[in-house]
Amino acid sequence: MDIDIFKDILVPVIGGLGIFMLGLDFMANGIQALSVNRMRAFLAKAAGTPIKGVLAGTLITGVIQSSTAMSVMVVGLVNAGVIALRPAISVIMGANIGTTLGNGLIALPLGPLGLILAGVFSLIYCFAKSEKVKNIALAGMGFALIFYGLNLMTGGLRPLRNLPEVMALLQTLTADSYLNLLKCVFIAAGVTAMIHSSSATIGIVMGLGAAGILDWTTAVAFSLGADLGTTITSWMASLNLSKNAKRTAYAHISFNIIGVCITIPLFFVSMQVLEWAMQFFGGDPAIPVIVDGKETFPLVPVAVGLYSTFFNVFNTLLLFPFIGVFERVLSRVGHTDAEDTEDFSTPRFLDRKLAGDFAKAVPAVQQETARHLQAGAMFLDIARSSKKAPSDPGEHYLATDILSRDIRAYTAELMKEDLPYDQLDLIASLIEEADFTAALTESMHQVARRVRREKFSSPAQAIVDVALSKLDASLRQILPTYGISDPKVPAGNVNLPEVEELRARTLALGPNAGAAERGTILALLGSIERAEILIQRIDAERKSVNRQSVLARASARKETRPHALGDPGLSPVPAE
């Protein structure tokens, strides 16, 4: 029987692979469009402990069906400071388990139904008016195309068995020894790294195994390599992000590498266990089934999916007790002295236990807001390239932004319906102050960025120095403990000039400074002017409510409240 390589092999294999990967993309996009924001919010809230992190990672990855998307999401959340390194490691572990649910679905024998299901969902997508229905149809279409593409690949790969040259080449990829096993693992890892999808690699392997091109143990070995190669995407996603984001990607890589290194010596023993377990899932995967007069091996995809699930669950159970060790080791990767400085992304005074006690919660908010102001003042150190300043203005601003959100959320929780008006008014004042503080920090960030980006000539630098000293002095109005005792002013000046005078000096620089320098200084003066307005607004907001008086009355109410329960029948304490 003559084989038309183009029509019988290339067309169905390349077409099937393209449809398979398109289906993966459609399904992931549809599901993520429906729920990715909820998933992200759920993850940020749920991943508080390692156990919760594993469960959250498993659940979300099982829903969105992409460990790659999940790992990239986790890296992004760590970069934003929403999740710490320790729970992020556990989420990555859970993501590896969650993605195996998709491998199990791929193994289902739904190939012949794939095309008709894809057609049905495509029609729904085309005629749907609701965006929600469109996304559901898109996910369903992708789900169906996965099976149809896999079915096409299996049919296109089957004729390869009749080509002696191909079979001779593939015989060198038989996992019959540890050396050949390593070869299969590294080839699969390389393919997965190139196409950024372990599911696609496993789909190809399942097609090769079902067609009888690869024996079932070799197909399983390739799935092991796919788990290794999928770590590359999260590493690439972390390249331009924070150190903790990079460490999260390193956790993903090291977790899978350790798992593969432990599993490889046990591979042939595990194959015996898998062969026994397959008795409960249909029988021996090496026994062919005749379909239309041709041999197929429908149980090979089941064996691959089962092993992939076992590997990731085993790996998680084995390494979960060492999450603390992972965190300690990874926290030293790329560690610098700057990382020993205070972490402003984490509140220091906002104790949840105090939230029910107004008289104690309000001072905590005031302390945290003052700490936020101190973090904002550090942008002046950054602008001056001080050695004690944070090295990255962007990361420092991100930390202050996270702190600002925590302050506002904590303060808003204090606003109970049964509070007296004066206490509600004080809470509203605190929220406004926190908002002005966040805006001031943003202006200070702009000041630091503009100074750091431009190289100034000596006359221009003199104006910049005076402008920064002016902002130093203004900050003392709301931050009395600010660390600079006396503003640095040019010799001969008693008072710091106003912004208008500095603007006039800038315009008069003429040939002593380039247009870019003057433009930067003018923008800098605009940011300083906004910062000074916000400083005045913060000061006015603090004076708009007599906070000490409100707190004193709140404390007095708290002390007299137990006496108001003078009736023994109302006593919360059981009578003796």
Count all strands and give the number: 2
How does the overall form come out from the CA principal axes? Answer: elongated
Specify Rg, calculated over alpha carbons. 32 Å
Side-by-side strand order of the widest sheet:
1-2
**Helix and strand composition category:** mainly alpha
Domain count: the total is 2
For the termini, the CA-CA separation is 98 Å
Which percent bin holds the helix content?
A: over 70%
- List the quaternary state of the chains: single chain
Average pLDDT, to the nearest integer? 78
Strand content: under 5%
Q: How many H/I helical runs?
A: 22
The biggest beta sheet reads:
2 strands, antiparallel
**Strand/helix succession:** HHHHHHHHHHHHHEEHHHHHHHHH
Ranges where pLDDT stays below 50 over 5 or more residues in a row are 489-494, 563-576
Highlighted features:
576 residues, mainly alpha, disordered C terminus, Phosphate:Na+ symporter
Describe the model.
72% of the residues lie in helices and 1% in strands. It has 576 residues and is mainly α. The protein has two domains: 5-332, no CATH class; 352-485 and 497-542, no CATH class. It has a two-stranded antiparallel sheet. The N and C termini lie far apart (98 Å).
Blueprint (SSEs and pairs):
Layout (H helix, E strand, L loop, with lengths): L4 H42 L3 H15 L2 H13 L5 H22 L4 H17 L3 H27 L6 H8 L6 H18 L2 H13 L5 H14 L1 H7 L5 H21 L3 H11 L11 E3 L2 E3 L2 H21 L3 H9 L26 H26 L9 H21 L7 H33 L4 H18 L23 H9 L7 H30 L2 H18 L12
Antiparallel strand pairs: 1-2
Helix pairs in contact: 1-2, 1-6, 1-9, 2-4, 3-4, 3-11, 3-12, 4-12, 4-14, 4-15, 5-6, 6-9, 8-10, 9-10, 9-14, 10-12, 10-14, 11-12, 12-14, 12-15, 16-17, 16-18, 17-18, 18-21, 19-20, 19-21, 20-21
